[in-house]
Every structure is written in structure tokens, then in C-alpha cells.
Amino acid sequence: MIDTAKAIAYGLADPEEDVWTLFEHTRMAKKCLPVASVLTIAAAGSETSMGAVITNEQTKEKRAYDDDLSRPKFAVMNPELTLTLSDYQTESGCVDILMHTMERYFTGGQTMEITDSIAEGLMQTVIANAKILHTTPQDLEARSEIMWVGSISHNGLTGCGTDGGDWASHNMEHEMGGMFDVAHGAGLAAIWGSWARYVSHRAPHRFVKFAMNVFGITPEANEEETIEKGICAVEDFYRSIHMPTSMGELGIHPTEEQIEEMAAGCERDTGGANGSVLPLKKEDMIRIYKMAR
Question: Could you tell me where the beta strands, DSSP code E, fall in 7-107?
């Protein structure tokens, strides 16, 4: 709803323009009414971010637009307002938070050690507290941790000193979400392992560091084994909180034609190559979608 408020704020500030053209990236916003938020789910981090994601109900396209003009002026963050969330929505939110950090962490460009350390701490905090909330949903301390880390994960801090991150998993999930109306975090969980296995050979040092520093995995003599253990650790975590690790587990079964359509839409939205670790073209995304089935 915060993202919807941002879209409305853009529209009210410039009523002569079609808001959707921002999300099509055919123009840039010149102004936006001030936005504030009262957070009732810890997930997207929109309460402190410059981003907004909305779905065109007519075309079933899910698109993002980023601009500091819409960054909220303030946010009311009371974890008690999240106590009535279902386990599925709580954990889907936790995955979204984790993935906001992972998208920035896995990059083919430059990084900074301090930024990596912050990101690794955030990821460990999400993982630990998501497990607590899965068994003890009324734990207010755990909800406080998740709410705060959700905001930090998407306010730009964990991308400082980097090329901005990869974001291919997010972009590919947007196509899934637009077509099948799935919860964003659950969709990310379903696609990430397949993406990671497809691209990890292009940044093995990042995946090894992730496995060691986030999950405490002892490195194997074979680098590929360490990477696979790290990917499996993420998937084991997802399963432990009842999140899917494939589209089948998510409850969707896209046809060949639908996979083609999602890959084409993602390529069109990103202007061609998609991602930083390994820039993905349409054919690459089709392979990843098929791996994730």
C-alpha cells in the first residue's frame, strides 16, 4: 500500500501525465507530493526507500520505479501492528527483506568490506528472527528486529560503495507476480536457488564468502562444493519457515508459452541484459525459469 501511495502522490503532483509511464521508464518524475507511512508489515522496506512497485491490472505487468522524490518524509514503525499477520505473510516479508540485502551483496562489480560486514550482519539477523517468528509469532522482540532490519535493508545503506547490486531475481519475480499474483517474498524464494546455480560461476568468491560468513560453512577444497553448500543452506532456511524453493512448491506451473512471455517481459522492462553477476538475456531467463519449475 505504501507503493500505491507513492504512485498516487506522483499522479496528484503531475495530473496531466499518466503515472504508468513512470513505471514504463518512458519519462522521469519532476515532482511528487510528500508521502508518509504507518508500517503494518515488515517486508518491502518502502517506508524508507526511494522505490515503488505496482501492477498494471489490465496488462498484468508488475513494474518498479525508483526516485528519491517519493522517499517517505517519516515512517511510524510499531511492531505491535504486525502481530496479526499470518505466518505466511510474516515469512514472505522476511524473505523479501533478506533478498533486498542479497541482491546488493551478490554483485559483479566493486564492493567495500564495511558494506559487506553490514550486509552479512543484516542477513544473519533476518534468518535468526524469521525462525523465531515461525514458531513464536507473538515474540515482539523478534518482530522489532525484523521491522528495523527491513527498513535498513532497502534504504540504500547495504549498497554503499558497490555497483548497486544484481536485482535479476527481483526482476524475474516481478514477471511471476504480475502473471500469477503470488506473494513477492515467496516468489523470490522460489526463483533464487535456480538463479544462484546459474550465475555463481561468474562470481565464485562472492558465493564462497557468503557461505562462510553468513552460514558458517567450512570451505571445501573444491570451490564449487562450498558454493553449493551455501545455496543449499539458503534453501534449507526457506523450507524451515515454510517458504517455497521452486515454482511448483509455490503452487504455480507456468507453461512453455508463459515462461517465454515472462522472460520477454523481463528483458523488455530491463532494456536488454538483466543483472550484474551475469547479465541475463531472454534465453538465460528462460533456462532459469525452467530450472525453477
Answer: 36-38, 51-56, 61-66, 74-76
Does the 2-77 domain belong in CATH 3.40.50.1820? no
Residue boundaries of the structural domains of the chain: 2-77, 86-291
Is 0.90 topped by the overall pTM? Answer: yes
Q: How far apart are CA 245 and CA 254, in angstroms?
A: 15
Residue closest to 200 by CA, chosen among 171, 169, 228: 228
63 beta partners? 54
Q: Which residues pair with 55 in a beta bridge?
A: 62
CA atoms within 13 A on the CB side of 266: 32
DSSP β-bridge partners for residue 65? 52
Digit-coded pLDDT (tens) for 151-164: 999 999 999 999 88
Using CA atoms, how far apart are residues 268 and 152, in angstroms rounded to an integer? 30
Going by the DSSP 8-state scheme, the letter that residue 54 receives in this structure is E
Under the banding of pLDDT at 50, 70 and 90, the label for residue 109 is: confident
Evaluate whether 184 touches 44 at the Cβ level (below 8 Å): yes
| Stretch (H or E) spanning 288 | helix 282-291
Domain 86-291 falls under CATH 1.20.1090.10 = yes
Cα–Cα distance measured from residue 49 to residue 72, given in angstroms and rounded to the nearest whole number: 7
